[in-house]
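User: I've been going back and forth on whether these two constructs are worth ordering. Before I decide, could you fold them both?

Assistant: Sure. I'll take them in the order you sent them. The first construct and its structure tokens:
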Amino acid sequence: MRDHHSFSLRIGYGENSREFRVGRTGLLTTVIVFALLFFGLTQFLYDYRENISKLRDLRALRERVSEQNLTLYNLHSKFESLETEVERLRALDARVRSLVRINESLGPGAAGKKVRQTGLGGLETQETAAQARLDRLLDLRFEQLKKDVLVDVKDLEVICEVLDGRRIVLESAPSIWPVRGILSSGFGVRLSPFTDTKVFHHGLDIIGRPGAPVVAASGGVVVRSGYESLFGNIVVVDHGYGLSTLYAHLGERAVATGDFVSKGESLGTVGATGRTTGPHLHYEVHVNGLAVNPSRFLD
């Protein structure tokens, strides 16, 4: 008699087929087992994805920690450098103060005399109280020293700013020779080749090959470029900071008023235009409009 609470399952075909009979309880158990397996597999996949995500977060966190460690190392290096500078300033402060004390000790009546301790007295203090007072004095001295160091650092910053400004001015100075040649006349008093009397020469005369390039002694802006009866073809360059240079008797001019020129850039060629006895370059340097000796700036 077939059980109405069971299910049959036939596997195969023909005579080789077999029939299996599964009860309701067995079927329910199988369904529960498969459900548990599915739930377990789903939970495993979920946990696996969570672990992968956590591994990514851990890797990113390690990278951030590595970057922060590098930042801390850089800050530590800067702090050590600052400590070294502070120690140097403290040593300098101690040296200056020791020199001051030596100078005071060498005052009138101080040298060559030794004071004999013939009289002793005064208020006495317990050793512990004296130590506390000494610690307090040291703390006050340290605070004062910190203030002195901060003042010294500010002074150094001001000095650095001044030096940086001077560096910029020096970079603007006309420091290279404007032409290769022979110096025929310097700055100062000379006999005039035209009147044979003593006159003051405001620049340098440099004999060069006709047509040789004349270059800017420093970078700047061309403020004059033209022809004058005395100087012939002339170019004047303003270098800023009150510095300017003049190039006269040029054969040709290669720049115009308003042009910006770099150090070593061609301004024209050696010539014999204007009032001159032969091909050469007349070169002047002006500081705040006053002609000065160009040799002071040349390398």
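The second construct, handled the same way:
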Amino acid sequence: MPDGVVNFCPGSGSSFGAGLVEHPLTRFIAFTGSKEVGLDINQRAAKPQPGQKWIKRTILEMGGKDAVVVDETADLDAAADGIVASAFGFQGQKCSAGSRAIIVESVYDRVLQKVIEKTKQLRLGDVTQPDTYMGPVVDENAMKKITDYIEIGKSEGRLMTGGGHHGPGYFIEPTVIADVDPQARVAQEEIFGPVLTVIKAKDFDDALHIANDTEYGLTGSLYSRDQQRIERAKEEYYVGNLYFNRKSTGALVGVHPFGGFNMSGTDSKAGGPDYLLLFTQAKAISAKK
């Protein structure tokens, strides 16, 4: 592309980023990041600046508190695999990470035990080694935030495995906290790290209610062999990306267009057939012969 079409401008989001959003010549903002910053961008973009001739448009892809729901008909081994992969892939530092496992009570103990066993097998350490599953979290601030949430989780549920951190570097053990109330902080707030909260549901209806009962709506997963429940989930599980009998992460361009709604974003589907059209300006032209 010609010089100046694409510009890499690194800087602090709170100063440099805010300046870009507020500039009168900025016309369109595409953002991926936290709910707090996304809402700030939305607010700043909505206020016209001197010299601004257009209404600024935004694509905002923000956070999630994504759930993996397991009912009593599910393949429990596959469900446990999916829960662990969803929660701890990329150190849990994905907006699509399955940070909540919601399991109906009749299979709760069995699935929880399988999740604990599989989590304990994950290798934490040097990512240049082929058998390493998890590396460090991104920086010191992330480590502090995550470890603070782990301490909160210890008072809101039962610490089943993990909870520690190691140095040098910012290595946090994959952590499972069970018997968590659906309204607990660790069940409602995005942690963005390798922390899984496990919640017991009375039945499928209760599990679906719990899954939907957050301010987010990004991704979700259901493990079930009941086709009627799968059909219900298509209509009643309120997420932008819904997966059946597989993990809640791994959207692919052109295959699983990605994006959520509620406080997870504007539901603009990155990787979808209409995504690039959002960056264009429509113009209808008519002529009389």
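Notes on the second construct follow. The mean pLDDT is 95. The CA atoms of residues 27 and 54 lie 7 Å apart.
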